Amino acid sequence: MAKAAIRYSHEEVIDAWLQSRPIEALPTAVLERTTAEMAERPFVLLGHDPDSADKVDELAELRVSIAEFPVAYAAARRARDTGLWVTMGAPNVVRGDSTSGNLNAANLARDGLLDILCGDYHASCLLYAALILHRQGYCELPAAVAMITANPARAFSPHDRGRIERGLSADLCLFTEDGGIPQIIATFKAGAPVYTRQANVEIPV
Fold first, then answer.
1. Which of 2-11, 79-88, 159-168, 179-188 has the lowest mean pLDDT?
2. DSSP line for 32-63
């Protein structure tokens, strides 16, 4: 005799799972598992949307090293004072504001509270965002470029890249500008070209 299939919606599955254990036990369970995993194999932990200085303090206690998209100025300031990296989305800089009405990334850069630009929902604007920060006077060019190169490398621990120095991996990007918009000409991985827009970019650096 054939059995009728029972279908559950995504929401029903989540509701059933939450009802199977006290909601207050969930953060503790996640924390215990995360702590155990970090002890076995260290990894970088980010805290998303911290909205207060107290929340940043909690993140620091959890061994979080990056404050991702702080939504309050006090949170960004405490992250800086606590030694957490502060990252914001590059589209925020290009647009001139947050899509959700939160902090302006360029203003954080101006105040020395921004370390890393991430691609967020539009990774191709990373370079453009760094150039905007410099052109509009929010920070010097080396500091702006470091937000998409050296600082992410340091934050995520691949110390063999992110800077142009002897002995480091020559992962490079060559670009020009067209109407103020950066145009990628070539990229290099460990000194070897992996993408070229022009045929004359052939010699490893």
1. 2-11
2. HHHHHHHHHS----EEES--SHHHHHHHHHTT
Distance between CA atoms of 47 and 49, rounded to whole angstroms? Answer: 7
The Cα–Cα gap between 98 and 107 comes to 11
Verify that 109 and 150 share a domain, yes or no. Answer: yes
C-alpha closest to that of 163 among 171, 96, 155 = 171
Residues of the domain holding 131: 24-159
Work out the pLDDT band at 133, boundaries 50, 70, 90: very high
Cβ(32)–Cβ(25) under 8 Å? no
Q: Both tokens of residue 115? A: 């370390």
Beta strands at 192-196 and 181-189: parallel, antiparallel or unpaired: antiparallel
Q: Of the candidates 75, 16, 66, which has an alpha carbon nearest to the alpha carbon of residue 45? A: 66
* Residue 48: CA count within 13 A, CB half-sphere: 3
Domain match, 57 and 106 both: yes
Domains of the chain: total: 2
Overall pTM > 0.85: no
Please tell me the distance from the alpha carbon of residue 176 to that of residue 185, in angstroms, as a whole number.
7
Q: Are residues 149 and 194 in the same domain?
A: no
* pLDDT of 204 above 60: no
Q: Predicted confidence band at 120 (pLDDT cuts at 50, 70, 90)? A: very high
